[in-house]
Structure prediction request, 354 residues.
Amino acid sequence: MYLTDEQRLVSRALSNLEPENQSAHQGPPATEEESDTRTPLQRFRTAPKRPFTVSDFAAGAWCELQHWYTLTRLPGGKKTVTVAMKGGSRVHQTLEDEIHSAVQISIASKEEAFALRLWNIIQGLRTLRDTGITREIEVWGTIEGEILNGVIDQLSHKSPNASFEKELNSPASSHPIQQSSIVDYMGSGRKTVYLTDVKTRGSDRLPTGKAVRPAKVQLYLYHRLLSDMAADKLDYSVILERYGLNGEARFSDGFMAQIGSLHDEVFYDAESEVGETPIERFSPDLIAYRSISQIIPLLKAELEETFPLGPASISNLLSVEYRHRSDGRLLGNNAFAIDEEGTDDYMKWSLQWW
Prediction:
């Protein structure tokens, strides 16, 4: 990627690179990123490195140059963990703990690690249907042939702003947020699903203007990814190929033993090993899901049951929920309608940078 003169100057200022050359007639030495002509996509989001995340595009919505600095200058291309970030993580973990109970699961392969991610989605969808709310739902999709991954903070059956939603869906509104009638949908006994992103702040003041833009980009993309999964448009074989996974690889007996009785729990990886369990002790239902390729049909069935009308089951009214990072108290909510055209335009612009 070629940097403009302005980008070079700012990049050097941010990273405090080489001191001024004492020889006035000599120019500054070329930095590594200046001599590397590969695109950011080739350098940072091509296998074996991780694929695109929704956060990649949200970060660009705030400050493109800052995101470039993070990718090129910080360890692992990730922001340095600050006290404020730790506070935000604690708030998110507290909210998740209100919905799910975490159980340690040991893994013996990368296929088992990915299977846990699929099981978490399945359990999350079941929790949404049973309780009306769930948190931390992972989604995947593709954009211009590249994998895009993200985790939705919250799905629920409760409208974030019922009066605003009613106003937007009134006949007088020039921007209805649903293509189909919400009244007809609710009358059928099925429930609309609403997406919410949770943000934490160190003050009681809510952000305005451009400061809200990254959260909007996140929610727009989450909505698109979830809608495609609900419509069964996601090609899971592409996801497996990108991660270098064998969909037919059999899970170990030890892994199967751990998840066999935990259908109501959320799983996460633990490094400790467990003993093997005889296959005869597994239930017939569990034996049916001994590889990723066998779990995927179950995931599709859970998506169909959760979103019976496909994307029409998902509201186009999105919301950002703000909480104080010190104690998690609710500060406010910002609800807005999805902007498909604006999302398309932004992604075209952002992909040009990548």
About this structure: Residues 110-131 form the longest helix (22 residues).
